[in-house]
## 1
Amino acid sequence: MAHEHILGADAERVPFLNQTPRVAQMCAVSGAIQWSINRGLQLPYWYFGRMSYLLPLYLQSREDITRAPDLIAPIQVNPESLVVRTVLLPHMPYANARVAVRRHDQLPHWMLDAWNEHADLATQVQIENPEAQPVSDDPSE
């Protein structure tokens, strides 16, 4: 994992880690990945013509794993390793994950909750023209 791309360039995705040293940030992400793998929370999804996996990353609380996670890590599976190139906001991989299942209710609860939380923030204009402006995750905007 490379800090600069995962957390450095997209620090606004994890504002609660901004004051944490880089090594501790990467340890937190790595530990959250391992925790999710150990609990079988991975979700197969389609990305660039091949199946990969999404893992929910619970960094602030693991009390309810049916709720939207803090971040999602797309995992590329190689013969000798797992590769994490970035972390995403919870709603970002919904479309790719949706392609991997027959019905949306076959997605795990954490993915549906992430999508529903994001969709609740969308305005009518954004729903009618999704490319007009991105939906902010900050309800004050």
Note: The chain has one domain: 3-128.
## 2
Amino acid sequence: MYKVRAKVVKMKGRCHYHNKGDYIEAEDDLLTVPDGKKICLWSLSALLPFLSAVQREHDEPSDWLSTVDYIQCPDSSVEVLWEIEKIPV
């Protein structure tokens, strides 16, 4: 199992909620947002399906989840790119 960190690495336009370097973490069935920070529902809706899925080992060559490194927020008014990092626990 892995802890998964999603971090904002690129922004195009002005997002009212996130800044470059903001992150959230998922470990087991818990989502952690640093104190004083928030996550918008647009980004969360894009990230949520992947956070629990990429916590597990993916050893099948045809499993595309092991190749997911970035998730883009679906909000059409701004491009926020989240990097997915797997941290061994």
Note: Residues 2-88 form one domain.
